[in-house]
Amino acid sequence: SGHITYDPGFMNTAVCESKITYIDGDQGILRYRGYPIDQLAEKSTFLEVAYLLIHGELPSKTDLDAFSARVNRHTLVPEGFRTFMGTFPVNAHPMAVMASAINALPTFYPESLNPFDEETVELATVLILAKARTITSYLHRRRNGEPLLYPDYSRGYVDDFLRMTFSEPYQAYETDPVVVDALDKLLILHADHEQNCSTSTVRMVGSSHANLYASIAAGVNALSGPLHGGANESVLAMLRRIQSEGGDPAAFMNKVKNKEDGVRLMGFGHRVYKNYDPRAAIVKKSADAVLETLGKRDQLLDIAMELEEIALNDEYFISRKLYPNVDFYTGLIYQAMGFDPEMFTPLFALGRMPGWIAQWREMINDPKTKIGRPRQVYIGEVERDYVDVAAR
Ligand code: CMC
């Protein structure tokens, strides 16, 4: 079978060619379709970035309006689907419910499944972007025993997401423009990140010609792990633990450096970024502003900043090139907005939908794609004869 390269964790193996996202990990550069992430975060909106990632170009005003209207029109979910989501225990982890919901979605839309028909894939794209918003808002509400709220088609994607998540049925709801803007930015920052664990999972599952929903449900599950998207929830747990143990970041950092009980500084380090994660730089600025505006500046932010300060000046972190990643400060913003820690990773997933969709579409349309099928290095027993159970 020729020469096999052993590369655990794919440290050095490219599995595809891609035109979607560019990262220079040494310089801390991130671009979607060539556009620098800071420009998009500053000037664009989440749906516009979704269109850019999926279709390759920024939309004209007409195209963006049509795309937004189409996504809005599909925001409602069938009653049976709502009932299905309602059957999970209220304290179920929302990532498990979210993956199940995305997986179940196409059973209600069997007309959206053909992976080789452009129009059908575009329908599935719009359905996923639209329903993911409804699903995420309901994930929050069902935890408190509250009903799913219906969409208001006249509002924007993020604006109506916040209304559907936090308002009372039939009550007028004014969103705070600072909050809308901050969440829009966060979703943009999470929208794609080339071949990370969840995205390569989406491509791998899709390479068997499994449908877009099945592939993305697998991506949601991959994202749930604490080394990946689950890190944002773990960061908050870590900060709270430090606070409850008397608020001594230096003592915690000693545990990390001594690798006591495998403790890691969550929200730090990255496989590709060996310089500051450019997303983290934007999030940190935003965290400061949002917490100040909402009057929710709390001690956890101080603890986080102290941890960062220690890390940036400590040989352990410097020599390993460990810097804050996108997950380090996001939880503090989500918490100030009113989300429980269990909701942080679903919010990451909501933001990542455009990236997963774009990457799956690029994969399915690339004639060079082959079914994902890694090789292995076998290190088990050599051949031996079966021994009858009585003789073992
Ligand atoms: N705290 C303490 N030590 C660390 C950390 C950390 N967060 N991250 C890496 N190290 C150490 C690690 O122990 C190893 O040291 P040594 O050579 O002495 O054994 C060295 O740095 C290299 O680490 P690695 O595990 O080989 O690096 P990796 O590229 O396989 O892992 C990572 C990358 C992100 C999984 C890892 O840095 C990590 O576990 N970070 C904490 C979890 C986290 O924040 N994840 C979010 C990633 S960014 C957004 C996302 O994907 O969701």
From TrEMBL:
Pfam families: Citrate_synt. Keywords: Acyltransferase, Transferase, Tricarboxylic acid cycle. It catalyses: oxaloacetate + acetyl-CoA + H2O = citrate + CoA + H(+). It comes from the Bacteria. Coiled coil: none annotated. GO terms for molecular function: citrate synthase activity. CDD domains: EcCS_like. The keyword Transferase applies. The keyword Acyltransferase applies. Pathway: Carbohydrate metabolism; tricarboxylic acid cycle; isocitrate from oxaloacetate: step 1/2. Belongs to the citrate synthase family. This is Citrate synthase.
